[in-house]
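Researcher: Good morning. I'm working through a list of sequences from a screen, and I'd like to move beyond sequence-only analysis. For each chain I'm collecting a predicted structure so we can compare shapes side by side. This is the next one on the list. No need for commentary yet; just the structure.
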Amino acid sequence: MMSLLFRPDLDAGEVFVNFNQNTTSLAVATKSGYSLYSLGSVDSTLDKIYTCPTEEIFLIERLFESSLVAIVSQRSPRKLKVCHFKKQSEICNYSYSNSILAVKLNRERLIVCLEESLYIHNIQDMKVVHTIRDTPSNSAGLCALSSSSEHCYLAYPGSVTSGEVQIFDAINLHAKTMIPAHDSPLAAIAFSPSGTELATASERGTVIRVFSSLDGTKLFELRRGLKRCVSIASLSFSTCAEYLVSSSNTETVHVFRLERSSSENSEPKQSSDDWMGFLSKTVSSYLPSQVTDVFSQGRAFASVTLAEPGVRRICTITKIQKQLRLLIASQDGYLYVYSVPSMEGADCQLIKKHDLRLDDCYAMDVRVNPAPSLGVATGVTTATNIIAANTTDNNTKHNETKASPSSNSYATALKGDASSNVASIGGS
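Model: Good morning. C-alpha coordinates for this chain:
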Protein backbone atom coordinates (compact mmCIF):
# COMPACT_ATOMS: atom_id res chain seq x y z
CA MET A 1 0.00 0.00 0.00
CA MET A 2 3.06 2.30 -0.54
CA SER A 3 4.32 4.40 -3.47
CA LEU A 4 7.10 6.85 -4.15
CA LEU A 5 4.56 9.54 -5.02
CA PHE A 6 6.73 11.21 -7.62
CA ARG A 7 7.16 11.07 -11.37
CA PRO A 8 10.18 8.85 -12.02
CA ASP A 9 12.77 9.99 -14.52
CA LEU A 10 12.27 7.09 -16.88
CA ASP A 11 14.71 8.47 -19.44
CA ALA A 12 17.46 8.14 -16.82
CA GLY A 13 16.62 4.48 -16.33
CA GLU A 14 14.74 4.94 -13.07
CA VAL A 15 11.69 2.88 -12.16
CA PHE A 16 8.47 3.20 -10.20
CA VAL A 17 8.20 0.54 -7.50
CA ASN A 18 5.29 -0.30 -5.23
CA PHE A 19 4.39 -3.08 -2.79
CA ASN A 20 0.81 -4.31 -2.57
CA GLN A 21 -1.23 -3.95 0.62
CA ASN A 22 0.05 -7.05 2.46
CA THR A 23 3.54 -7.12 0.91
CA THR A 24 3.06 -10.31 -1.06
CA SER A 25 3.96 -8.80 -4.41
CA LEU A 26 5.95 -5.98 -5.98
CA ALA A 27 4.94 -3.86 -8.97
CA VAL A 28 7.70 -2.37 -11.12
CA ALA A 29 7.04 0.14 -13.90
CA THR A 30 9.71 1.21 -16.38
CA LYS A 31 9.77 3.02 -19.69
CA SER A 32 9.00 -0.32 -21.36
CA GLY A 33 5.89 -1.25 -19.36
CA TYR A 34 5.24 -2.91 -16.02
CA SER A 35 5.87 -6.21 -14.26
CA LEU A 36 4.45 -7.90 -11.16
CA TYR A 37 6.60 -10.11 -8.93
CA SER A 38 5.80 -12.55 -6.14
CA LEU A 39 7.78 -12.08 -2.92
CA GLY A 40 7.24 -15.57 -1.54
CA SER A 41 10.80 -16.76 -2.27
CA VAL A 42 12.56 -13.40 -2.41
CA ASP A 43 15.49 -14.68 -0.31
CA SER A 44 16.74 -16.51 -3.38
CA THR A 45 14.65 -15.60 -6.43
CA LEU A 46 12.21 -12.95 -7.55
CA ASP A 47 9.38 -14.79 -9.30
CA LYS A 48 7.69 -12.87 -12.07
CA ILE A 49 3.90 -13.12 -12.13
CA TYR A 50 3.16 -10.99 -15.15
CA THR A 51 4.82 -8.61 -17.62
CA CYS A 52 3.05 -6.11 -19.86
CA PRO A 53 4.76 -4.05 -22.56
CA THR A 54 2.64 -0.93 -22.75
CA GLU A 55 2.86 2.83 -22.53
CA GLU A 56 4.98 4.40 -19.82
CA ILE A 57 3.36 3.86 -16.43
CA PHE A 58 3.23 6.59 -13.83
CA LEU A 59 1.34 4.75 -11.08
CA ILE A 60 0.38 1.13 -10.53
CA GLU A 61 -1.45 -0.51 -7.61
CA ARG A 62 -2.34 -4.18 -7.28
CA LEU A 63 -5.23 -5.26 -5.05
CA PHE A 64 -3.77 -7.78 -2.60
CA GLU A 65 -3.23 -11.11 -4.46
CA SER A 66 -6.08 -10.56 -6.90
CA SER A 67 -5.79 -10.06 -10.64
CA LEU A 68 -6.96 -6.46 -10.43
CA VAL A 69 -4.50 -3.62 -11.04
CA ALA A 70 -5.11 0.11 -11.23
CA ILE A 71 -2.73 1.98 -13.54
CA VAL A 72 -2.11 5.56 -14.65
CA SER A 73 0.13 6.21 -17.65
CA GLN A 74 2.52 9.08 -18.28
CA ARG A 75 0.77 9.70 -21.59
CA SER A 76 -2.68 10.06 -19.98
CA PRO A 77 -2.09 11.23 -16.40
CA ARG A 78 -5.76 12.17 -15.93
CA LYS A 79 -7.08 8.69 -16.74
CA LEU A 80 -7.32 5.75 -14.35
CA LYS A 81 -7.55 2.26 -15.83
CA VAL A 82 -8.63 -0.81 -13.85
CA CYS A 83 -7.48 -4.01 -15.53
CA HIS A 84 -7.67 -7.77 -15.02
CA PHE A 85 -4.09 -8.66 -15.86
CA LYS A 86 -4.60 -12.44 -16.08
CA LYS A 87 -7.39 -12.01 -18.61
CA GLN A 88 -5.44 -9.19 -20.33
CA SER A 89 -8.55 -7.04 -20.28
CA GLU A 90 -9.54 -3.57 -19.24
CA ILE A 91 -12.49 -3.53 -16.83
CA CYS A 92 -13.17 0.19 -16.81
CA ASN A 93 -11.52 3.58 -16.95
CA TYR A 94 -12.25 6.94 -15.37
CA SER A 95 -11.06 10.38 -16.45
CA TYR A 96 -10.61 13.35 -14.14
CA SER A 97 -10.21 17.09 -14.56
CA ASN A 98 -6.61 17.10 -13.28
CA SER A 99 -3.64 14.76 -13.12
CA ILE A 100 -3.92 11.75 -10.82
CA LEU A 101 -1.22 11.96 -8.15
CA ALA A 102 -1.94 8.79 -6.17
CA VAL A 103 -4.19 5.73 -6.21
CA LYS A 104 -4.94 3.59 -3.14
CA LEU A 105 -6.85 0.31 -2.90
CA ASN A 106 -8.34 -2.02 -0.35
CA ARG A 107 -11.14 -4.58 -0.60
CA GLU A 108 -13.82 -1.96 -0.02
CA ARG A 109 -12.62 1.27 -1.57
CA LEU A 110 -10.49 2.73 -4.35
CA ILE A 111 -9.14 6.24 -3.71
CA VAL A 112 -8.01 8.65 -6.42
CA CYS A 113 -6.03 11.64 -5.19
CA LEU A 114 -5.87 14.86 -7.19
CA GLU A 115 -4.09 18.01 -6.05
CA GLU A 116 -7.17 19.53 -4.41
CA SER A 117 -9.70 16.69 -4.21
CA LEU A 118 -10.12 13.00 -3.38
CA TYR A 119 -12.52 10.60 -5.14
CA ILE A 120 -13.79 7.57 -3.22
CA HIS A 121 -14.96 4.63 -5.35
CA ASN A 122 -16.86 1.57 -4.17
CA ILE A 123 -14.56 -1.14 -5.43
CA GLN A 124 -17.37 -3.68 -5.88
CA ASP A 125 -18.90 -1.72 -8.78
CA MET A 126 -16.42 1.17 -9.24
CA LYS A 127 -19.11 3.76 -8.56
CA VAL A 128 -17.90 7.08 -7.15
CA VAL A 129 -19.67 7.21 -3.80
CA HIS A 130 -18.07 10.32 -2.36
CA THR A 131 -15.86 13.24 -3.31
CA ILE A 132 -13.83 15.32 -0.87
CA ARG A 133 -13.34 18.71 -2.47
CA ASP A 134 -11.29 21.82 -1.76
CA THR A 135 -8.60 19.98 0.16
CA PRO A 136 -5.40 21.93 0.91
CA SER A 137 -3.05 21.92 -2.06
CA ASN A 138 -1.40 18.49 -2.16
CA SER A 139 0.98 18.51 -5.11
CA ALA A 140 2.79 15.39 -3.87
CA GLY A 141 -0.43 13.36 -3.77
CA LEU A 142 0.20 12.49 -0.14
CA CYS A 143 -2.53 10.22 1.26
CA ALA A 144 -2.93 6.83 2.92
CA LEU A 145 -5.72 4.25 2.91
CA SER A 146 -5.93 1.56 5.54
CA SER A 147 -5.78 -1.96 4.12
CA SER A 148 -8.32 -3.04 6.74
CA SER A 149 -11.98 -3.38 5.81
CA GLU A 150 -13.03 -3.04 9.46
CA HIS A 151 -11.20 0.26 9.98
CA CYS A 152 -11.33 1.59 6.44
CA TYR A 153 -9.83 5.03 7.02
CA LEU A 154 -8.39 7.57 4.63
CA ALA A 155 -5.73 10.05 5.80
CA TYR A 156 -4.59 13.19 3.99
CA PRO A 157 -2.95 16.56 4.82
CA GLY A 158 -5.24 19.11 6.42
CA SER A 159 -2.94 22.09 5.96
CA VAL A 160 -0.13 23.38 3.75
CA THR A 161 1.58 25.23 6.60
CA SER A 162 1.47 22.66 9.42
CA GLY A 163 1.48 18.90 9.91
CA GLU A 164 -2.26 18.51 10.38
CA VAL A 165 -3.73 15.12 9.40
CA GLN A 166 -7.37 14.63 8.47
CA ILE A 167 -8.77 11.11 8.98
CA PHE A 168 -11.90 10.23 7.02
CA ASP A 169 -14.12 7.17 7.45
CA ALA A 170 -14.26 5.84 3.89
CA ILE A 171 -17.11 3.40 4.62
CA ASN A 172 -19.52 5.65 6.49
CA LEU A 173 -18.34 8.66 4.50
CA HIS A 174 -17.74 11.21 7.21
CA ALA A 175 -14.78 12.96 8.83
CA LYS A 176 -13.51 11.03 11.83
CA THR A 177 -10.82 13.09 13.52
CA MET A 178 -8.10 15.68 12.96
CA ILE A 179 -4.62 15.16 14.40
CA PRO A 180 -2.17 18.08 14.84
CA ALA A 181 0.77 15.75 14.24
CA HIS A 182 3.64 18.18 13.54
CA ASP A 183 4.49 21.87 13.38
CA SER A 184 5.92 21.52 9.86
CA PRO A 185 3.95 20.27 6.81
CA LEU A 186 3.58 16.52 6.37
CA ALA A 187 6.00 14.48 4.29
CA ALA A 188 4.81 10.89 4.91
CA ILE A 189 1.86 9.05 6.46
CA ALA A 190 1.06 5.34 6.80
CA PHE A 191 -1.58 3.18 8.50
CA SER A 192 -0.88 0.04 10.48
CA PRO A 193 -2.33 -3.19 9.02
CA SER A 194 -5.34 -2.99 11.35
CA GLY A 195 -5.96 0.66 10.48
CA THR A 196 -6.05 1.63 14.15
CA GLU A 197 -2.66 3.41 14.13
CA LEU A 198 -1.20 6.11 11.91
CA ALA A 199 2.49 6.98 11.53
CA THR A 200 3.46 10.49 10.45
CA ALA A 201 6.59 12.44 9.55
CA SER A 202 7.01 16.11 8.69
CA GLU A 203 9.20 17.88 6.15
CA ARG A 204 11.87 18.30 8.83
CA GLY A 205 12.11 14.51 9.09
CA THR A 206 13.74 14.32 12.52
CA VAL A 207 10.78 12.93 14.51
CA ILE A 208 8.29 10.21 13.57
CA ARG A 209 5.07 9.97 15.56
CA VAL A 210 2.46 7.22 15.83
CA PHE A 211 -1.13 8.10 16.73
CA SER A 212 -4.35 6.21 17.37
CA SER A 213 -6.52 6.70 14.30
CA LEU A 214 -9.59 6.14 16.49
CA ASP A 215 -9.19 9.15 18.78
CA GLY A 216 -5.93 10.87 17.81
CA THR A 217 -3.99 9.87 20.94
CA LYS A 218 -0.22 9.96 20.51
CA LEU A 219 1.17 6.46 21.12
CA PHE A 220 4.85 6.68 20.14
CA GLU A 221 7.42 9.35 19.38
CA LEU A 222 10.51 8.14 17.55
CA ARG A 223 13.72 10.05 16.93
CA ARG A 224 15.15 9.49 13.48
CA GLY A 225 18.09 11.81 13.99
CA LEU A 226 19.33 15.06 15.52
CA LYS A 227 22.02 16.30 13.14
CA ARG A 228 20.09 17.22 10.03
CA CYS A 229 16.67 17.57 8.52
CA VAL A 230 15.88 15.05 5.81
CA SER A 231 13.13 14.29 3.32
CA ILE A 232 11.21 11.18 4.40
CA ALA A 233 10.32 9.13 1.32
CA SER A 234 8.57 6.17 2.95
CA LEU A 235 6.94 5.09 6.20
CA SER A 236 5.64 1.57 6.67
CA PHE A 237 4.42 -0.65 9.48
CA SER A 238 5.51 -4.26 9.41
CA THR A 239 2.80 -6.77 8.60
CA CYS A 240 2.92 -7.89 12.25
CA ALA A 241 2.65 -4.21 13.37
CA GLU A 242 5.60 -4.61 15.75
CA TYR A 243 8.01 -2.55 13.66
CA LEU A 244 8.01 0.73 11.78
CA VAL A 245 10.52 1.38 9.01
CA SER A 246 11.42 4.69 7.38
CA SER A 247 13.56 5.73 4.43
CA SER A 248 14.68 9.17 3.34
CA ASN A 249 16.92 10.94 0.85
CA THR A 250 19.92 9.86 2.93
CA GLU A 251 21.70 6.51 2.66
CA THR A 252 20.23 5.22 5.95
CA VAL A 253 17.04 3.20 6.50
CA HIS A 254 15.79 3.16 10.11
CA VAL A 255 13.88 0.33 11.79
CA PHE A 256 11.95 1.12 14.99
CA ARG A 257 10.46 -1.45 17.33
CA LEU A 258 7.07 -0.52 18.76
CA GLU A 259 6.93 -1.86 22.31
CA ARG A 260 3.32 -2.48 23.31
CA SER A 261 3.56 -3.95 26.80
CA SER A 262 0.49 -4.32 28.98
CA SER A 263 1.98 -1.83 31.41
CA GLU A 264 2.47 0.78 28.71
CA ASN A 265 0.08 3.20 30.28
CA SER A 266 1.09 2.55 33.89
CA GLU A 267 4.00 4.05 35.84
CA PRO A 268 7.13 2.11 34.81
CA LYS A 269 9.26 0.45 37.47
CA GLN A 270 12.64 2.07 38.00
CA SER A 271 15.55 -0.30 37.54
CA SER A 272 19.14 0.36 38.50
CA ASP A 273 20.31 0.58 34.92
CA ASP A 274 17.40 2.68 33.70
CA TRP A 275 19.42 5.85 34.11
CA MET A 276 17.94 7.52 31.05
CA GLY A 277 14.43 7.16 32.45
CA PHE A 278 15.59 8.45 35.83
CA LEU A 279 17.38 11.38 34.21
CA SER A 280 14.33 12.23 32.12
CA LYS A 281 12.10 12.39 35.20
CA THR A 282 14.66 14.31 37.24
CA VAL A 283 15.24 17.09 34.74
CA SER A 284 11.70 17.31 33.34
CA SER A 285 10.71 20.01 35.83
CA TYR A 286 13.83 22.09 35.13
CA LEU A 287 14.33 21.94 31.35
CA PRO A 288 12.17 23.26 28.51
CA SER A 289 9.67 20.81 27.06
CA GLN A 290 11.62 20.62 23.77
CA VAL A 291 14.59 19.21 25.68
CA THR A 292 12.67 16.74 27.82
CA ASP A 293 10.88 15.46 24.70
CA VAL A 294 14.25 14.29 23.35
CA PHE A 295 14.77 12.04 26.41
CA SER A 296 11.39 10.36 25.93
CA GLN A 297 11.75 9.63 22.21
CA GLY A 298 12.43 6.10 21.04
CA ARG A 299 15.59 5.37 19.09
CA ALA A 300 16.07 3.17 16.06
CA PHE A 301 16.09 -0.54 16.86
CA ALA A 302 18.26 -1.25 13.82
CA SER A 303 19.38 0.46 10.63
CA VAL A 304 20.77 -0.20 7.17
CA THR A 305 23.30 1.99 5.40
CA LEU A 306 23.20 1.78 1.62
CA ALA A 307 25.88 2.92 -0.77
CA GLU A 308 24.06 5.72 -2.57
CA PRO A 309 22.45 8.74 -0.86
CA GLY A 310 19.86 10.79 -2.71
CA VAL A 311 18.03 7.74 -4.10
CA ARG A 312 14.37 7.51 -3.13
CA ARG A 313 13.38 4.16 -1.67
CA ILE A 314 10.30 2.46 -0.23
CA CYS A 315 10.66 -0.06 2.57
CA THR A 316 8.59 -2.59 4.44
CA ILE A 317 9.02 -5.46 6.89
CA THR A 318 7.18 -8.73 6.39
CA LYS A 319 7.42 -12.40 7.21
CA ILE A 320 8.69 -14.54 4.36
CA GLN A 321 8.80 -18.28 5.03
CA LYS A 322 8.33 -17.50 8.75
CA GLN A 323 11.35 -15.18 8.86
CA LEU A 324 11.21 -11.40 9.28
CA ARG A 325 12.61 -9.61 6.26
CA LEU A 326 13.29 -5.95 5.56
CA LEU A 327 12.58 -5.21 1.89
CA ILE A 328 13.98 -2.05 0.30
CA ALA A 329 12.92 -1.18 -3.25
CA SER A 330 14.67 1.78 -4.88
CA GLN A 331 13.94 3.97 -7.87
CA ASP A 332 17.32 3.09 -9.37
CA GLY A 333 16.00 -0.41 -10.00
CA TYR A 334 17.08 -2.66 -7.12
CA LEU A 335 15.30 -4.70 -4.46
CA TYR A 336 17.33 -5.40 -1.31
CA VAL A 337 16.42 -8.18 1.10
CA TYR A 338 17.72 -7.92 4.69
CA SER A 339 17.28 -9.99 7.82
CA VAL A 340 15.82 -8.24 10.87
CA PRO A 341 17.90 -8.77 14.03
CA SER A 342 16.31 -10.09 17.21
CA MET A 343 18.38 -7.83 19.45
CA GLU A 344 18.53 -4.06 19.49
CA GLY A 345 21.67 -2.57 18.01
CA ALA A 346 22.52 -5.61 15.87
CA ASP A 347 23.05 -5.18 12.15
CA CYS A 348 20.55 -6.07 9.45
CA GLN A 349 22.33 -8.57 7.22
CA LEU A 350 21.99 -8.36 3.45
CA ILE A 351 20.57 -11.61 2.09
CA LYS A 352 19.90 -10.79 -1.56
CA LYS A 353 20.06 -7.93 -4.04
CA HIS A 354 17.73 -8.21 -7.05
CA ASP A 355 18.20 -6.13 -10.20
CA LEU A 356 14.71 -5.11 -11.35
CA ARG A 357 15.93 -3.83 -14.71
CA LEU A 358 17.36 -7.08 -16.08
CA ASP A 359 14.20 -8.10 -17.92
CA ASP A 360 13.11 -6.17 -20.98
CA CYS A 361 9.32 -5.96 -21.03
CA TYR A 362 9.28 -5.81 -24.81
CA ALA A 363 10.76 -9.30 -24.96
CA MET A 364 7.44 -10.66 -23.72
CA ASP A 365 4.56 -11.13 -26.11
CA VAL A 366 1.90 -10.29 -23.52
CA ARG A 367 -0.30 -7.25 -23.92
CA VAL A 368 -3.42 -5.83 -22.30
CA ASN A 369 -6.25 -6.02 -24.80
CA PRO A 370 -8.97 -3.51 -23.89
CA ALA A 371 -12.40 -5.06 -23.63
CA PRO A 372 -15.81 -3.42 -23.26
CA SER A 373 -15.85 -1.43 -20.03
CA LEU A 374 -17.28 -3.23 -17.06
CA GLY A 375 -17.96 -2.19 -13.49
CA VAL A 376 -19.93 0.88 -14.66
CA ALA A 377 -23.31 0.20 -16.23
CA THR A 378 -22.97 2.76 -19.00
CA GLY A 379 -19.28 2.22 -19.75
CA VAL A 380 -16.59 4.83 -19.21
CA THR A 381 -17.30 7.53 -16.63
CA THR A 382 -15.52 10.87 -16.97
CA ALA A 383 -14.81 13.62 -14.49
CA THR A 384 -17.45 15.74 -16.25
CA ASN A 385 -20.12 13.14 -15.46
CA ILE A 386 -18.93 12.91 -11.87
CA ILE A 387 -18.99 16.65 -11.23
CA ALA A 388 -22.37 17.11 -12.87
CA ALA A 389 -23.92 14.37 -10.77
CA ASN A 390 -22.62 15.65 -7.44
CA THR A 391 -24.69 17.51 -4.89
CA THR A 392 -23.54 20.80 -3.36
CA ASP A 393 -22.45 19.97 0.17
CA ASN A 394 -19.90 22.47 1.48
CA ASN A 395 -17.05 20.02 2.14
CA THR A 396 -17.91 16.81 0.28
CA LYS A 397 -20.20 15.80 -2.57
CA HIS A 398 -22.00 12.54 -3.23
CA ASN A 399 -21.98 10.98 -6.65
CA GLU A 400 -25.36 9.92 -8.05
CA THR A 401 -24.17 8.17 -11.20
CA LYS A 402 -25.85 4.79 -11.56
CA ALA A 403 -23.45 1.87 -11.45
CA SER A 404 -23.70 -1.81 -10.71
CA PRO A 405 -21.41 -4.85 -10.69
CA SER A 406 -21.02 -6.23 -14.17
CA SER A 407 -20.93 -9.85 -12.99
CA ASN A 408 -20.51 -12.02 -9.95
CA SER A 409 -17.01 -12.87 -11.13
CA TYR A 410 -15.89 -9.29 -10.53
CA ALA A 411 -16.77 -9.45 -6.85
CA THR A 412 -15.30 -12.94 -6.60
CA ALA A 413 -11.97 -11.82 -8.00
CA LEU A 414 -11.74 -9.08 -5.39
CA LYS A 415 -11.27 -11.75 -2.73
CA GLY A 416 -7.93 -12.61 -4.28
CA ASP A 417 -7.97 -16.38 -3.74
CA ALA A 418 -6.17 -18.59 -6.20
CA SER A 419 -9.28 -20.13 -7.68
CA SER A 420 -11.13 -16.89 -8.23
CA ASN A 421 -8.20 -15.16 -9.89
CA VAL A 422 -8.72 -17.18 -13.03
CA ALA A 423 -12.37 -16.14 -13.31
CA SER A 424 -13.19 -13.95 -16.27
CA ILE A 425 -13.87 -10.33 -15.44
CA GLY A 426 -13.16 -8.70 -18.75
CA GLY A 427 -15.04 -9.20 -21.97
CA SER A 428 -18.72 -9.03 -22.63
